[in-house]
Structure of Probable branched-chain-amino-acid aminotransferase:
Amino acid sequence: MRTVYVNGDYLPESEGRVSIFDRGFLFADGVYEVTTVLDGKLVDFDGHAARLERSLRELDMPMPMTRDALLEVHHRLVAENDIDEGLVYLQVTRGAADRDFAYPAEETEQTVVLFTQAKPGLAKAPEKGLSVDLQPDLRWGRRDIKTVQLLYPSMAKMAAKRAGHDDAWMHEPGGTITEGTSNNAYIVKGNTIVTRQLGNEILHGITRAAVLRLAREAQMKVEERAFTVEEAQSADEAFVTSASTFVMPVTSIGGKAVGDGQPGRIAGRLREIYLDEARAKAL
Ligand code: PDD
């Protein structure tokens, strides 16, 4: 049985409890982070801690503990649960209060929950690329805040799976792609990598920031701009990035093969250099 962290206590998972009045439960009034574990160490912990602080600030919530205290909780859970490859999930909500759309007038005690998931083989080279479906992006307008309000991405992923795909890329009226259901989306045309610019329309991926920096350091050309479904379907390569998938090739978009239908060379190269750095810098 796993050990989980709930509001200061390390408990067997069956003993973790949160109030039915928790605003995370009633209003999705909470944010989360997913940090990857490789070789028993945390990948880009500081990136995730910084984004957590930003998400909380956007919702008028403070950080529930210092960066060092948070790191210690992560390390203790990784050690107690003997995680070599996997992830640490963290969720912070505004806490319990009588149900009211207004934030509670009196400051509530935040709910802080962390747990691990073991994922042996996480960093193995993918045997094939992903087939992504196309689904309209019907999420709310503040996708830059990493809230636990994930029902639409979940619906879009299920629609994609029912249609025989692995995942979905979401698009807006006008036909531009925003991102995947739980990852950032990229296409490659010639030697140029194209991915949506940062804004309220997408999550500011921690993996995205690292991959774009590494791509530029490797003298690859990067364009941060919106791209259309048609551009994506006629691209030479495509891929996604996220904490748990690193850089993952996409070989089919909306039923059309991308390039020659095989995982792309640039995606493969970026995955290698990303994983090398992630392992070298992990805490
Ligand atoms: N998802 N876009 C969305 C909508 C996401 O949910 C995620 C992450 C990303 C990639 O962000 P990062 O590189 O920081 O993981 C982009 C996480 C992994 C999840 O919900 O499980």
Residues 265-281 form the longest helix (17 residues). The first strand starts at residue 3 and ends at 6. The helical segments are 23-27, 45-58, 67-80, 151-162, 206-217, 229-233, 265-281.
